[in-house]
Amino acid sequence: MLIKPKDLVQSLKGPSQYGHNIQKKVQKKLDNVQLGLILSHVRS
Questions:
Q1: What is the structure's pLDDT at 42?
Q2: Can you tell which superkingdom this protein's organism belongs to (predicted)?
């Protein structure tokens, strides 16, 4: 079985892209939580 360089690049790109999306989602959630905390501090 021969592995083409293109396939190798694709398989390397796949997981990292997936991980990046998760990181973005988590970052967004963290930002929202921080924003909520800041707003609640401002209100009180």
A1: 85
A2: Eukaryota
Query: Cα dihedral angle (14, 20, 21, 23), rounded to 10 degrees?
Result: 150
Query: 1-44, pLDDT tens digit by residue?
Result: 576 777 777 776 676 777 778 889 999 999 999 999 988 988 86
Domain ranges of the chain: 5-43
Distances, alpha carbon 39 to alpha carbons 11, 13, 24, 29, 34, in Å: 43, 39, 22, 15, 9
